[in-house]
Amino acid sequence: MTEELPGDIGNPYSTLTTKEGWRAFVDEHPEPPAPLAPGAVLDAEELDSYQEARKDYHSSSVIVATPTIRKVVTTGRKRIVLNRHQVSARRGLIVSGSSGTGKTTAITQLGKNVEQLARRRNPAATAQLPVVFVTVPPAATPKMLAGEFARFLGLPLLHRMSQVQITNAVCDLLAQLGTTLVLVDEIHNLDLTTRYGAEASDQLKYLSERMAATFVLAGLDIETSSLFQGTRGQQIAGRYSVIPSRPFGRRNRGDREQWQALIVTLEESLRLHRHQPGTLLALDAYLHERTGGLIGSLSQLIREAAVEAIDSGAEKITKRTLDTVELDHTAEQARPKPASKRLGKKPKAA
Questions:
Q1: Any alpha helices (H) in the chain, and if so which ranges?
Q2: Cβ distance 309 to 315 under 8 Å?
Q3: What is the average per-residue pLDDT within 309-332?
Q4: Among 10, 62, 97, 222, who pairs with 245 as Cys (CB 3.0-4.6 Å)?
Q5: May I ask the CATH class of domain 67-245?
């Protein structure tokens, strides 16, 4: 049976896993729509355009410099420096945690920081490609993994090409482009207890040896996965340090201050005409209860509520607005039930 390789990627700018999409991400600097002048009157078309611009702005995730992001960026940049003169056994980094804790955001912010710095240092090097971003596909084989790197680069892939041919083409091109950082997401898809997973892990190790670059990986709960098991796992554990990505807590003062700072940043980003600053901060306990401290769920909750506030004309977010937003299944399952439901009682008729 012939192994399938990645085919048509559609719009390359819609994904980070192509060089065009990655560059668009690095170049992106979302700006909020300009506020309306006092007394401004818009016709129907202008009003629709203005509303859509604000909804589009709120649909973009606000990047907050969380403790995890700061640690990943700081540690990742140090690893790049330490690996400059290493010819083998380069040290890497793994970001591990549950879903919604900001792992992908953390590594992509590291990549964005590294690429922007490289551009500032050498603005004339337009052909450089400091950062590569790929994801590990489910049930990945070594050839599929090499194909993901080729897909990012836009290398044409023929089904008759062997794994070795694809790997050599990828490594040769990345050496020419001066790549210093390789980001690999969804690393939990490498199951070392299976033949293909073990061989794909070997391929990733081989790529890290062939490329003069620092590898930063991210995945779900890597510490308890098969990635650190057996001889192969020991090699990975010996070269990579782990940065945990956890939900925000509220048990002590420091945790509460970090959670509140996150809410303040998200609230300050709102562009709603009648929203009172401090409203969301006053709901910090409720917001933690709704989201379980997951930054991904919190971002969705506030952004969707903002879009609803524009659509409804309320132009502000209230607890009632937030209550109407359906979050991801994990957050909804953890959401405390009303007392009447917990006790098995029927709610009183209004």
A1: 19-27, 44-59, 67-82, 103-121, 142-153, 163-177, 195-210, 230-239, 253-268, 284-291, 295-312, 319-323, 329-334, 339-342
A2: yes
A3: 90
A4: 97
A5: alpha beta
Separation CA 246–CA 310 (nearest Å):
32
Q: CA dihedral in degrees (175, 179, 185, 190; nearest 10)?
A: 20
- Which helix (H) or strand (E) is 326 found in, with range? none
User: What contacts 240, CB < 8 A, 6 or more positions away?
Assistant: 91, 92, 93, 94, 215, 217
The answer to whether 175 and 212 have CB atoms below 8 angstroms apart is yes
| C-alpha to C-alpha distance for 132 and 108, rounded to whole angstroms | 10
Residue 84 to residue 239: CA distance in whole angstroms: 15
Torsion angle (degrees, nearest 10) of CA 105, 24, 124, 75? 0
Beta strand spans in the chain (E): 92-97, 131-135, 181-185, 214-220, 240-245
Note whether 221 and 97 are within 8 A (CB): yes
Report the candidate in 243, 126, 125, 129 with the shortest Cα–Cα distance to residue 181.
129
For the chain, the structural domain boundaries read 67-245, 250-335
Rg (CA), the chain: 23
Which contiguous run of DSSP H or E holds residue 150? helix 142-153
Q: Vertex 226, ends 150 and 1: CA angle to 5°? A: 45
Least confident of 30-34, 300-304, 333-337: 333-337
Q: Sorting pLDDT into bands at 50, 70 and 90, what band is 163?
A: very high
- Tokens representing 123 are 């603005």
Q: Is 203 exposed, middle or buried (0-12, 13-18, 19+ CB in 10 A)?
A: buried
Q: Which residues are registered as beta bridge partners of 242?
A: 94
Q: Could you tell me how many helices (H) and strands (E) the chain has, helices first? A: 14, 5
Amino acid at 250: R
Q: What is the three-class DSSP state of 249?
A: coil
DSSP 8-state symbol, 206: H
